[in-house]
Amino acid sequence: MRADSGTREARFALKHSAPAACPDARAFSRQVQARTSRATLVQDGSAEQTLSVLITERGAGYRGTLRTRSVEGAHSERTIDAADCGEVTAALALVAALALDPNARTEPLADADLDGANRETPQAPPERVPAPERRPPTSTRVPRTAADTREGASEADLAWAWGAGISLDASSGIAPAWLFASRVHAWVELWPEAWYSPAVQLSAAAGTRAFEHSLTEVALSWRSIRLEACPVKLAPSDRVSLRPCLLFDAGELTGEAGETETVSSRQATRPWYALGALARLMWSPARPLTLHAQAGASVPLRRDTFALASAADEPLIPVHEVPAAGLVLALGLGFEFR
Asked: What is the value of pTM for the model shown?
C-alpha cells in the first residue's frame, strides 16, 4: 500500500552513471517514482534535491553510490554492493525514495507499479556521464534493508581501506642544504568512497647530509617517525585525490665531524621534534597502484646548534644551527587495498 506523507510535490534532479548492462537513468527514476507519488523529476533548475547515482563494476559484482544534496546544502551518501546490477539499482532507488518521502513504499515493486511511474517535466533527459573503468576485485557487501535505510548509517557502513608504500623525501629545514631521505609508510582511511574520508598515516624515514666546514667535513644524520592526520579528501575523480594533512615528527639528529690534525672526531645526537602541514596529491593509474606527490612545511620544536672545538681550551666553533622552519617535499608510490 502507499502511505504518502502529504500531497506536496518533491521535485528532484538526477545525475546517473552506470555500465551499459545496468538499468539506465529513466529506469532508476521510474523505480523512485513508483514508491512515492510525491516524487517528480525536473530538469529546469527547480529541484529541491539532486540525486547523484554512480554504479561501477566491482570484481564479480557491482558497487552503487547515491549522493543526495538539498538546495539548503544538506547532503548524505549511501553505498551498496551486490552481485547483480539490478539489485544495486533497486536498493539505491529505495534509498532515494525514502530521502524524498520518509513514508515511501518499501515492499518489492511489481511490473504494474512501474507502468505509470514516469512523472517528469518536459525537459531534456537526465544527465548521463561516462561510466568509470572496471575496478579489480574487492570484498562485497549485501544490499541494505529498508530498516537500515531509515535508521541511517550502521556498523556495516564503516568501509575502510589501507595501503603501504615508499617515497623519496627532501627537507630544507634540517641541514644547511636539502637533506634527502628514504621513507616507508602505511596508512588507513575510513569511508574511501566519501569526500570526507579521514585518514591516518604512519611512516619512518632516514637520511644523511654531508657538508664541508673550514676545519673538517661534517655529516648530519636524521631519523624520524612521522604521524600524519588527514581529515578530508578532495576527489575530483575516482582516481585522483588531494588531501590536506597535519604532521608530527619524532626522532633524532646526529652530527659527526671527521678527524683532522686540529679536530678530533666528535659526535653528538639530539632529539628531533617537529610540527607541520602538507598537501598530498594521489593518482591511481591502475588499482591497487597509487602514485603520490606532496609538499608542505615543518617547524622544529627544538633548534639545537652543533659546534666544534679545535682545542680543549678554545671556544666552540658553531657548525650548524637547525633552521626555524623548512619545506618538506616527497615523491612516492604505494599499493591501496579496499
From this structure: 0.57
